[in-house]
Amino acid sequence: MLIPIVVQVCLLVMVSGETLSNARPKCFYNETVDLRNYESLSNGSYLYRDILIEPEKLAFYEYRIKFLGRRVKAERHLRGCICDTSKRRYCINLCCEVGETYNKTSTRCEPMPVLSSWPMQIPMVLMNGTKVNVALLDHFVYKVDLPCKKPEWLLIENEPWELNEDGILQILEKSDAVIDDYADLGTVSYCITPYLPNSTKNYVLAPMSCPIKNEKTFLMTLNTYSMTVSVIFLIPTIIIYILLKSLRSSISGRM
Ligand SMILES: *[C@@H]1O[C@H](CO)[C@@H](O)[C@H](O)[C@H]1NC(C)=O
Ligand SMILES: *[C@@H]1O[C@H](CO)[C@@H](O)[C@H](O)[C@H]1NC(C)=O
Ligand SMILES: *[C@@H]1O[C@H](CO)[C@@H](O)[C@H](O)[C@H]1NC(C)=O
Ligand SMILES: *[C@@H]1O[C@H](CO)[C@@H](O)[C@H](O)[C@H]1NC(C)=O
Ligand SMILES: *[C@@H]1O[C@H](CO)[C@@H](O)[C@H](O)[C@H]1NC(C)=O
């Protein structure tokens, strides 16, 4: 009596397993880099800066992922996996190429002013909580991408942030914050570029992220977003629960 059900379940698992493996990306999107402007080596590998990307780490994408995981359609392009948490090779997003800075007025990347040098150091928090200053490009593999068309500065005095060793940017809570939690931004949600503080002549590295008018609206956006995600996950959970329940009652009904 049980056999038809068992067969059905097996078939279901096989079918869904197959569609999954067809669509399975080689790594997370935030671990890949756009290889449009790179040429393949004769054996099919790609060289991104000094990282060799083997053919099995390549895939075509027809979208890009932006601020807070928003997926936007894009022309079909090749991406390769370059970041690898298991090898402690972490990635960072620069808003512009090294040697350039993002001009918020023109919303474009521009070369650094003649007498200014591109800053190297950035404060970072190690896994064990120790704060250190690191040379950004020594610690991270960098990619260049904007989280949205018009990112805004996350200045430490308004939106206190901490850059984690793994590339996650934490926006720290302020006393009048709307939510209690930290807001964690993945590498698709922010980028880093030189910033010239009012009071100094030297540029520092600072993150930029998307539609932030002030902390409240920013944190509210995040809050709404995470609520939406929970609801989205709730629906399949309920469906599976109902399916399992009816499966169980039909099994026990037949015994
Ligand atoms: C492909 O070529 C590059 C450079 O010539 C080499 O370093 C790499 O090991 C080769 N990869 C494979 C899989 O043979
Ligand atoms: C940024 O762009 C604006 C408008 O194009 C320009 O007037 C301004 O000088 C630029 N700022 C810097 C620092 O280059
Ligand atoms: C954290 O780790 C770093 C590097 O591994 C080490 O130098 C430092 O002493 C550690 N700090 C603490 C508080 O364990
Ligand atoms: C990359 O994406 C994965 C899956 O969405 C997420 O779990 C991870 O925290 C992200 N990492 C970074 C550094 O953005
Ligand atoms: C920097 O200058 C801008 C415009 O002049 C001003 O709005 C801002 O409050 C200043 N920031 C600091 C930290 O003084």
TrEMBL record:
Q: Where does this one sit in the cell?
A: Cell membrane
| GO molecular function ontology, one term from the record | G protein-coupled peptide receptor activity
| Segments passing through the bilayer | 225-244
- In the UniProt record, the signal sequence range is 1-17
Q: Which GO terms describe its cellular component?
A: plasma membrane
The record's section on Gene3D superfamilies has: 2.30.160.11, Methuselah ectodomain, domain 2 (2.170.180.11)
- Where does this chain mainly localize? membrane
Q: Per the database record, which ranges form the Methuselah N-terminal domain?
A: 27-210
Give the keywords, sorted. Answer: Cell membrane, Disulfide bond, G-protein coupled receptor, Glycoprotein, Membrane, Receptor, Signal, Transducer, Transmembrane, Transmembrane helix
Superkingdom classification of source: Eukaryota
Keyword Signal listed? The answer is yes
Topology of the protein relative to the lipid bilayer: Multi-pass membrane protein
The record's section on InterPro entries has:
Methusela_ecto_dom_1, Methusela_ecto_dom_2, Methuselah_N_dom, Methuselah_N_sf, Mth_GPCR
SUPFAM superfamilies annotated for this entry?
A: Methuselah ectodomain
Q: Would the keyword Disulfide bond turn up in this protein's UniProt record?
A: yes
Family per similarity comment: Belongs to the G-protein coupled receptor 2 family. Mth subfamily.
Q: What is this protein called?
A: Methuselah N-terminal domain-containing protein
